[in-house]
Fold this protein.
Amino acid sequence: MTMAAATPTTEAVSVGQDREQAPRREAGAPSKQGLLRPGLAAAVVAALATSLVAAAAGAADVPLTIDGEEIPATGFAVATLMCSAVGLLLAGALQRWAPRPRAAFAGVLIAASFVPSVSADTDTATKVVLVATHLVAAAIVVPVIVRSLPARRPRP
């Protein structure tokens, strides 16, 4: 009885060729992760970023007050987390009931997003910081949520 020795193959294999390729997501298809996990992660990053912007503004002696009450840098984080949670709830509702969830989400944000920052009873410098932190948070959170929403709701 003769045993043949096992020899390693010498075929050239490109990197990743032996791995199963993940199917590509077609344009307009929602992320498989859903809204919650990526949305919450983006909200936490945005909360940290808005706190840093507020801390930098405070260090530059910009008065961060509304109605005579000082806004701490942590207040920006809390507000960002709360508004992001409302945005996630809105996105979930639009995903369920709107025929075009992405477009509806973007439309609602454009219509209502700057009203609180601009209408606050405070001085111009504080309003500029409020708008800046709003833009920072939106630049982080909105693309994540929009990517997670379907372009069109599937027909039943």
Summary: The two ends are 66 Å apart (CA to CA). The helical segments are 36-59, 73-97, 101-112, 115-119, 124-148. The longest helix spans residues 73-97. Residues 36-146 form one domain.
